[in-house]
Amino acid sequence: MLTRRAILPDVEQIHKLIAVYSPDGTLLPRTLAELSENVRDFVVVEDGDEIIACGALHFYGRHLTEIRSIAVCPTHKGKGAGRVLIEALLEEAELHKIKCVCLFTRIPDFFAKFGFDYASREVLPDKIYKDCLKCPRLHACDEVAMYRGSLPKVTPVKLEDIHVPITALRA
Ligand SMILES: CC(C)(COP(=O)(O)OP(=O)(O)OC[C@H]1O[C@@H](n2cnc3c(N)ncnc32)[C@H](O)[C@@H]1OP(=O)(O)O)[C@@H](O)C(=O)NCCC(=O)NCCS
Fold first, then answer.
1. Are the C-beta atoms of 52 and 78 separated by less than 8 Å?
2. Contact between 43 and 56 (Cβ < 8 Å)
3. How many Å lie between the centroid of ligand 1 and the Cα of residue 129?
4. For residues 164 and 171, what is the distance between their CA atoms, to the nearest angstrom?
5. Which residue's CA lies nearest to atom 4 of ligand 1?
6. Are 146 and 102 contacting, i.e. CB atoms less than 8 angstroms apart?
7. Whose CA is nearest to atom 7 of ligand 1?
8. Fewer CB near the last or first residue (10 Å), C or N of the chain?
């Protein structure tokens, strides 16, 4: 298994991997256009010629980056691809001297293995303003926020004060 930064020709395989896990809401769906635009965020794991896993690191700034779009091909699960992928993304975050890595997940036990701890999503306003406000589950989120490093020193967002007209946001 080899990890490397993704390049544009990988986009179709990344798209297929993410599509496996988006119908049930495990991952946010990504279009080919979005993936092409953000392909430099991605790391892939190869087994021979095949891409068997992908994941991305989205930069908000030196204070915060987010691990997202983590997907291991179902036939390759349980063989260490997830581990090498997360380790490669954390190395990338270290290279960029990022102070805090965050993520939102339904499988906290997996990420706890890499030193992630629970956080309240209210202390991650970058994520809230980027994604959560557009999400129909804003006030019924079933994911937990996790972080590794030093949490940004910010005034927490008061989610209960946010009343967003979801239909307007979808337009
Ligand atoms: C979660 C996922 C990335 C794990 O990848 P994987 O290649 O199967 O994981 P690995 O084989 O590298 O396992 C590494 C360790 O994590 C553990 N692990 C794997 N899946 C786990 C899970 N769902 N929950 C808790 N621990 C898990 C393994 O037991 C192993 O532990 P060990 O090192 O103590 O033996 C993969 O199952 C996946 O793509 N799931 C669907 C998409 C998804 O949920 N993405 C994350 C969204 S936030």
1. no
2. yes
3. 28
4. 13
5. 82
6. yes
7. 82
8. C
Q: What distance in angstroms lies between residue 69's CA and the mean position of ligand 1's atoms?
A: 13
pTM above 0.85, yes or no: yes
Per residue in 138-167, is it b (16+ CB within 10 Å) or e — as a string? beeeebbbbbbbebbeeeebeeeeeeeeee
Model confidence pLDDT, tens digit, residues 76-120: 999 999 999 999 999 999 999 999 999 999 999 999 999 999 999
The torsion defined by the Cα of 95, 127, 150 and 82, in degrees rounded to 10, comes to -50
CATH top class, domain 2-170: alpha beta
Neighbours of 94 (CB within 10 A): 11
Decide: 164 in ligand 1 pocket, CB within 6 A. Answer: no
- Decide: 138 and 162 in contact? Cβ < 8 Å: yes
Q: Which amino acid is at 129?
A: Y
Enumerate the domain spans of the chain: 2-170
Ligand 1: distance of its center to the CA of 63 in Å? 27
Which one-letter amino acid corresponds to residue 155? Answer: T
The values of phi and psi at residue 137, to 5°, are: -95, 20
Given a contact cutoff of 8 angstroms between Cβ atoms, the answer to whether 18 and 54 are in contact is: yes
Contacts of 60 (CB under 8 A, 6+ apart): 66, 126, 127, 130
* CB contact burial 69-81 (16+ within 10 A = b; e otherwise): bbbbbeebeeeeb
